[in-house]
Every structure is written in C-alpha cells, then in structure tokens.
C-alpha cells in the first residue's frame, strides 16, 4: 500500500529515520514508485512479494544519501 505522508510509514521506518525527515521522504517516494513499478509479480526477483520489493527499493534509495553512524543513527553522507 502506498504511503501518503511520513506519518503513514511503518513505525519501524519512522523510528529508524526519526532524526532525518528528508530520509523519510526519500523512503516514501521510492517505496511508492517501486510499489507501482513492481506491481506485476513477473517483474520481481526471486518471488518476493510486492511489499518486500518496495521496502528493499526504499531502503536502497535512503542508503544512497544517508548512512548509519557509529551512534546507530542515520546521517547524511558527506559530499564528494
């Protein structure tokens, strides 16, 4: 199910990304896009469910811009 706003995200995602609202937005947008793109089961890998695929895509998108620090919190990656 696509998410309309940050408050709709799973509690685990909200908690993990609580200090970086922008990362929550990235997660939501990537999840919603993947949810639409991989609606057809034939387009998914290894028989994963639509939810599993969309969550994996969303976390991958977050990891492009953010990284988990030694403190266990997510932080923006340094600019190159």
CATH homologous superfamily (4th level) name of the domain at 17-67: ChaB
Number of strands: 2
Structural class: mainly alpha
CATH class of the domain at 17-67: Mainly Alpha
Which residues form runs of ≥5 with pLDDT under 50? none
Main sheet characteristics: 2 strands, antiparallel
Strand content: 5-15%
Average pLDDT rating: 94
SSE series? HHHEE
User: Considering DSSP H and I runs of 4 or more, what fraction of the residues is helical?
Assistant: 40-55%
Number of helices: 3
Rg over CA atoms: 13 Å
What attributes does this structure have?
80 residues; mainly alpha; Rna Polymerase Sigma Factor, Chain: A; two-stranded antiparallel sheet; 8% strand
Any overview of this molecule?
By secondary structure, the chain is mainly α. It has a domain of 51 residues: Rna Polymerase Sigma Factor, Chain: A. Helix content is 49%, strand content 8%. It is built from three helices and two strands. A two-stranded antiparallel sheet has the order 1-2. A hairpin with a 5-residue loop joins strand 1 and strand 2. Helix 2 packs antiparallel against helix 3. The protein starts with 10 loop residues before the first helix and ends with a strand. The model has no long low-confidence stretch (mean pLDDT 94).
């Amino acid at each position: 199910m696509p998410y309309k706003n940050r408050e709709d995200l799973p509690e685990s995602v909200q908690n993990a990304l609580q200090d970086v609202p922008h990362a929550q937005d990235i997660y939501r947008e990537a999840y919603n896009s993947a949810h639409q793109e991989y609606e057809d089961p034939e387009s998914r890998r290894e028989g994963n469910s639509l939810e599993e695929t969309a969550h994996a895509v969303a976390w991958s998108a977050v990891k492009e811009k953010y990284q988990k620090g030694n403190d266990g919190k997510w932080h923006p990656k340094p600019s190159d």
